[in-house]
Amino acid sequence: MSDAYGDRGNKDRSIANPDGQGSVMPKVSGKSHAAPGGPFLIGDTMTGGYGKGPDILHACTIAVEKGEIAVIVGPNGAGKSTAMKAVFGMLDVRSGSVRLDGEDITELSPQARVGKGMGFVPQTSNIFTSMTVEENLEMGAFIRKDDYRDTIAQIYDLFPILKDKRNQAAGELSGGQRQQVAVGRALMTKPKVLMLDEPTAGVSPIVMDELFDRIIEVARTGIPILMVEQNARQALEIADKGYVLVQGANAYTGTGKELLADPAVRKSFLGG
Ligand SMILES: Nc1ncnc2c1ncn2[C@@H]1O[C@H](COP(=O)(O)OP(=O)(O)OP(=O)(O)O)[C@@H](O)[C@H]1O
Ligand SMILES: [Mg+2]
Questions:
Q1: What does pTM read for this prediction?
Q2: What distance in Å separates the CA atoms of residue 115 and residue 142, rounded to the nearest whole number?
Q3: How far does residue 79's CA lie from ligand 2's centre (Å)?
Q4: pLDDT of 242-254, one tens digit each?
Q5: Of 80, 200, 226, which is best to mutate to test ligand 1, by the most ligand atoms within 8 angstroms of its C-beta?
């Protein structure tokens, strides 16, 4: 499937923060190359849980390389969202570390991580439903002091439906359109890396395919993407790297192709 996207994609790389990517042309399929000094973003052997509660993550590692899409799959309650929150600084990591472009950011607040170039779309409550589409995008630009009009224009190019509905309350949009608002909002900070928790939750297969196409386009602008997906098979088809999490730990890790071909993964997580 990923080959089918060979000639597609947004060639305009200006949404990406060029500092994050240098001249590396992103790719969405094929062999993985480790960036010098390790992955661009990594939650490395993270152990931790919520508050004083028990550990949910057990030496869990998730990462994404420059120019790539990494996908995290696994059963409900496996700790996928928890792992994403840990990488974004919303969880106490009791051991392990989080590194962005080689820098240890384990102790930084989520806000500080946004300042460092992380964009995060959480699984729930990821838009302001009573605000208009455009106000949602403007909220996304909260850390920017420069003129963000052209970023909004780029987001409308990526998601044309949002331009049509710019003055409508985001809460009136369909599920797939809301997810576009959420991704658009995260892009407003011009992130160096984008984290998406179930961007296709609750949408039809057709809308899912469209959202995946848009996500691939974003990756092509030079923004590596670390995402959780319930639609495991489809997501692994567009993944350079895949992680299967079970009970807060890494069960299987490989390229998307390797995981799709692994009989044990197929049997337990992909419906055979
Ligand atoms: N805010 C919270 N406080 C305490 N425990 C939590 C909290 N959020 C999640 N958990 C617990 O952490 C474990 C992992 O949940 P998590 O939401 O990370 O799973 P998930 O893999 O994202 O599941 P899903 O596929 O349903 O989204 C579960 O046992 C859950 O009950
Ligand atoms: Mg989740």
A1: 0.87
A2: 11
A3: 7
A4: 999 999 999 999 9
A5: 80
CB of 36 shorter than 6 A to ligand 1: no
User: Is the distance from CB of 31 to CB of 241 less than 8 angstroms?
Assistant: no
Strands of 41-49's sheet in order across: 57-64, 41-49, 92-100, 103-104
Minimum CA distance residue for ligand 1 atom 3: 50
Cβ neighbors of 152 (< 8 A, separation 6 or more) are 134, 137, 138, 188
111-144: per-residue pLDDT in tens?
999 999 999 999 998 999 999 999 999 999 988 8
Give the pair of three-digit tokens for residue 269: 């997580």
Check if 56 has its Cβ closer than 6 Å to any atom of ligand 1: yes
**Ligand 1, atom 8, residue with closest C-alpha:** 82
- Closest atom of ligand 1 to 248 CA is 14
Query: At residue 83, what is the residue type?
Result: A
Q: Which CATH superfamily is domain 2-11+33-124+193-269 in?
A: P-loop containing nucleotide triphosphate hydrolases (3.40.50.300)
Q: Where are the domains of the chain?
A: 2-11+33-124+193-269
Q: Which helix (H) or strand (E) holds 140?
A: helix 133-140
Question: What are the angstrom distances between the C-alpha of 53 and each of 11, 57, 95, 127, 246?
Answer: 46, 11, 15, 28, 19
| Element containing residue 83 per DSSP (H, E) | helix 80-88
Is 67 in contact with 21 (CB distance < 8 Å)?
Answer: yes
Q: Are strands 92-100 and 41-49 parallel, antiparallel or unpaired?
A: antiparallel
List phi, psi (to 5°) of 209: -60, -40
Give the chain's radius of gyration (CA, Å).
Answer: 17
